[in-house]
């Protein structure tokens, strides 16, 4: 039988280092266990078999002592622990191996809650996955108000919390709140909560400020041991567990349509926690973890995770960062919704003056007013202080003339998607800005090279394509025109990093990556409807993928007029592959916002625009048609050098189009299903993180 330590190499081992601490107020001696992998906070502590063994050995030594009043667990500075070391997980080849890793974690962690003395988790930094489960096994928990991330992200990767999370958390904070952390947050772009939120939920029993967190936690622990502080917790046995699980299952169905098993297994385990003994619940977690560790979803999730954690941080083809120019002021041409969102983001992240321009005072006032209103919302939610709010409002101003850009280092246009309009804007801006000012365009489909043609300095024009909503969507497509120089490109990437976006370098090609693929994909579905496939059949043909929305729901979000404009642009570039739907054009001419009514039911009047075809397809035929078109277009894009590798297309689709994380990127999915022939990626690339 293979030793699991031979599979999980534990390249960086988290050690459990024990020190005795004399508690204040004469409360006795605490054995304080520090979880530390020997690196700073940029390499968080994780648990593989060697790390679990180190903690187990520390607990062996502690368990034999009779002089202790308590045991404490704390992490290295800024990090408590962030879960299992998953590098070896994709190498597991036998279910028994997967079962043993689950049991090992349970066997070690549960000891913290079964000692002869109380145990205290002092959550001083990020606590995620198995790290949070360590804390849950302890008798008591304190947390720092400065903790940036608390989460159980396993469902995001195609797993479940397998070391106690699904059993302990619902009993501690109730099923509904536990479901939010275990299922809903991971499926919402792997959302995390902060230390204050965790305390408010009841995950921690006390909260202290970061500066003296450990000292105050030890004082609090001493008072608990002396009986001066009593910890009371809510009784959740009366909660309606079945309703909470049923409601969550409905939401998961709406989002995934059964495409990923992990959230469903997690909900089963949470429901089991209401009545199961600790042994029964932990055994069920072991079985679920073993099943999921053997599934494709984990390997796919690890591939996606590797893309967003590594490749996104070192963009392929980006020039030397030392070439980047300093940006001390930003100009935004246009004051519409997208432009206003950008202005707020630039002000918040770069903390430099941002000036908007537009054609008249009414539009300008509306744009600046939007920014100020959003700042007030941030203040009202406690996201920023009053001083920060005042500073942000002062940074964002408006001007009716482009002379205000004279001292700007970075000017971005967000005007109507028309080449003549954009060329005119850049010509006017070039007349007033310095020779070193970067001119960026937020175009979603037009040629950056053509936009720069005719300027005195075309080398300083770059595509800087945001996705809507600007503050939420993490992707930036940075587009290099034929003349764009390295200094301009380096500045664009530096600004993208400062905005906390993941940037991908893209060749100047029609619609770049995301919009090109989405337009082809949607065009095939709309084409099937034009031919006579019932709209509802075509719209739900790809539900099994677990996409964030159906094609016609996406059409409604984007807006039929915008979708038609992009389709026409792509048809002009590639007429044999991109069609223009006459039915969609009729829908736009009628002023319809889409095919759905406000209550999300189909609007019969809008649907009628797509009737009349005589060659209907089945749902399966529509699915294959759309996926084969994606495979063809990706192959062509790679041949054209639109991006440097298939991984960049995967990254763009995950971050810019919401391609499901559990599918592991569009190219490995097409490989895995046999639709891509030949494969996009070498065998195994999407199975093991690079």
TrEMBL record:
Reaction(s) catalysed by this chain's protein: a (3S)-3-hydroxyacyl-CoA + NAD(+) = a 3-oxoacyl-CoA + NADH + H(+)
Protein name: 3-hydroxyacyl-CoA dehydrogenase NAD-binding domain-containing protein
Gene3D superfamilies: 2-enoyl-CoA Hydratase, Chain A, domain 1, N-(1-d-carboxylethyl)-l-norvaline Dehydrogenase, domain 2, NAD(P)-binding Rossmann-like Domain
Pathway entry: Lipid metabolism; fatty acid beta-oxidation; Lipid metabolism; butanoate metabolism
Swiss-Prot/TrEMBL keywords: Fatty acid metabolism, Lipid degradation, Lipid metabolism, Lyase, Multifunctional enzyme, NAD, Oxidoreductase
Residue ranges annotated for the 3-hydroxyacyl-CoA dehydrogenase NAD binding domain, each copy included: 329-508
UniProt domain 3-hydroxyacyl-CoA dehydrogenase C-terminal: residue ranges: 512-594
Family under the similarity heading: In the central section; belongs to the 3-hydroxyacyl-CoA dehydrogenase family.
A Pfam family that the UniProt record links to this protein: 3HCDH_N
């Amino acid at each position: 039988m293979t030793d699991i330590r031979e599979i999980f190499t534990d390249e960086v081992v988290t050690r459990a280092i024990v020190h005795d601490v004399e508690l204040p107020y004469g409360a006795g001696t605490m054995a304080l266990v520090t979880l530390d992998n020997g690196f700073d906070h940029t390499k968080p502590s994780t648990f593989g078999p060697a790390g679990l063994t180190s903690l187990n050995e520390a607990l062996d030594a502690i368990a034999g002592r009779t002089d202790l009043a308590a045991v404490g667990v704390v992490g290295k500075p800024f990090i408590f622990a962030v879960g299992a070391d998953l590098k070896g997980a994709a190498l597991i080849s036998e279910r028994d191996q997967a079962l043993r890793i689950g049991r090992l974690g349970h066997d070690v962690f549960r000891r913290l809650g079964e000692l002869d003395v109380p145990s205290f988790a002092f959550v001083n930094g990020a606590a995620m996955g198995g790290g949070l489960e360590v804390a849950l096994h302890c008798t008591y928990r304190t947390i720092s108000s400065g903790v940036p991330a608390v989460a159980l992200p396993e469902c995001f990767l195609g797993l479940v919390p397998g070391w106690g999370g699904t059993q302990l958390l619902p009993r501690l904070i109730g099923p509904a709140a536990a479901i939010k952390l275990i299922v809903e947050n991971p499926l919402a772009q792997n959302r995390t909560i902060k230390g204050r939120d965790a305390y408010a939920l009841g995950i921690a029993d006390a909260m202290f400020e970061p500066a003296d967190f450990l000292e105050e936690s030890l004082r609090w622990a001493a008072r608990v041991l002396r009986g001066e502080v009593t910890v009371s917790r809510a009784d959740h046995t009366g909660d309606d567990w079945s309703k909470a699980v049923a409601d969550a299952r409905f939401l998961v169905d709406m989002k995934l349509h059964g495409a990923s098993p992990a959230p469903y297994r997690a909900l089963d385990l949470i429901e089991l926690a209401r009545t199961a003994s600790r042994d029964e619940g932990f055994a069920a977690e072991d079985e679920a973890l073993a099943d999921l560790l053997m599934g494709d979803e984990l390997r796919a999730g690890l591939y996606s995770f590797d893309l967003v954690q590594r490749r996104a941080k070192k963009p392929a083809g980006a020039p030397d960062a030392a070439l980047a120019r300093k940006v001390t002021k930003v100009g935004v041409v246009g004051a519409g919704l997208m432009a206003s969102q950008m202005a707020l983001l630039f002000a918040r992240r770069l903390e430099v003056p941002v000036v908007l321009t537009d054609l008249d005072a009414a539009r300008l006032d509306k744009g600046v007013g939007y920014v100020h209103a959003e700042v007030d919302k941030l203040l009202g939610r406690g996201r920023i202080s009053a001083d920060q709010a005042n500073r942000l409002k002062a940074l964002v101003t408006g001007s009716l003339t482009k002379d205000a850009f004279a001292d700007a280092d970075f000017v971005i246009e967000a005007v109507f998607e028309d080449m003549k309009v954009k060329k005119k804007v850049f010509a006017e801006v070039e007349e007033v800005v310095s020779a070193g000012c970067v001119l960026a365009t937020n175009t979603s489909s037009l040629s950056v090279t053509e936009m720069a043609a005719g300027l005195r300095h075309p080398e300083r024009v770059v595509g800087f394509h945001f996705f809507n909503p600007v503050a939420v969507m993490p992707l930036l497509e940075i587009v290099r025109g034929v003349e764009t120089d390295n200094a301009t490109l380096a500045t664009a990437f530096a600004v993208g990093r400062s905005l906390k976006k993941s940037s991908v370098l893209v060749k100047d090609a029609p619609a770049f990556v995301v919009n090109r693929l989405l337009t082809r994909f949607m065009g095939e579905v709309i084409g099937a409807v034009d031919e006579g496939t019932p709209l509802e059949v075509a719209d739900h043909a790809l539900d099994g993928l677990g996409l964030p929305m159906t094609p016609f729901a996406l059409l409604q979000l984007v807006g039929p007029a915008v979708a038609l404009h992009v389709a026409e642009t792509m048809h002009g570039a590639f007429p044999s592959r991109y069609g223009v739907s006459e039915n969609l054009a009729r829908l736009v001419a009628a002023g319809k916002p889409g095919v759905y009514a406000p209550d999300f039911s189909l609007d019969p009047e809008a649907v009628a625009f797509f009737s009349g075809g005589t060659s209907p397809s089945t749902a399966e035929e529509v699915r294959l048609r759309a996926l084969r078109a994606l495979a063809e277009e990706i192959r062509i894009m790679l041949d054209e050098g639109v991006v440097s590798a298939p991984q960049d297309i995967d990254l763009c689709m995950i971050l810019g189009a919401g391609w499901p994380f559990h599918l592991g990127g569009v190219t490995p999915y097409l490989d895995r299903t046999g639709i891509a022939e030949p494969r996009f990626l070498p065998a195994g690339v999407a199975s093991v993180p690079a």
